[in-house]
């Protein structure tokens, strides 16, 4: 199964055909329009099998699946945290789509949103894929905070969930060689902030891990798509 995450930087109705070329079975897209409320009929027709959440109809979090894939909303408690979508894929495994935001919080901004989500739902997250734009990296850890990037990584490890990029490339957190985001699309401001985490209970093997080509994708977004081919345990 191929899964990907991509922050499209808005106007997904004009960009979905580009991401389609990567051939993913499941696409987790940040900053995309709500297909239900769009006026773009072609985008609405394309988005036949999806879940979406958000306050602004033009910039939310969506999970789009190929036809034939059953995707069910699990409606896990989010307690106002932004943004998370929990879903069941083919009655086989759970997936949590992520787009962390500041959410008007000083203490629990960005990775703090995911940390709080973990405190609420951790018991249900074993055997899960967690995928999306975390807006976070170990390089920004604040030691005095109890909810920094390293804390989240450790808490996920406690329930058998790890980053597929770091497993595939045998890389340490904060030492990534492949950026996923360029601030203001400037090539001298590269960061790795988009992730696919998965449980060893469901991932038997990673057969491929890709990050989109910078020169190609920076033409339409400040993020590069992150794509992974996995073989699931039966």
What do these coordinates show?
The chain has helices at residues 16-20, 41-46, 111-121, 149-158, 164-169, 214-217; strands at residues 2-7, 26-32, 50-56, 59-65, 71-73, 84-89, 93-99, 128-133, 161-163, 181-182, 190-191, 194-199, 203-211, 226-232. By secondary structure, it is of the alpha+beta class. The protein has a single domain, classed as Deoxyribonuclease I, Chain A, CATH 3.60.10.10. The strands form 3 sheets. The protein has a 6-stranded mixed β-sheet. A 6-stranded mixed β-sheet has the order 5-6-7-8-12-9. Strand 10 (181-182) and strand 11 (190-191) form a beta hairpin.
Question: How are the elements arranged and paired?
Answer:
Blueprint (H helix, E strand, L loop, with lengths): L1 E6 L8 H5 L5 E7 L8 H6 L3 E7 L2 E7 L5 E3 L10 E6 L3 E7 L11 H11 L6 E6 L15 H10 L2 E3 H6 L11 E2 L7 E2 L2 E6 L3 E9 L2 H4 L8 E7 L2
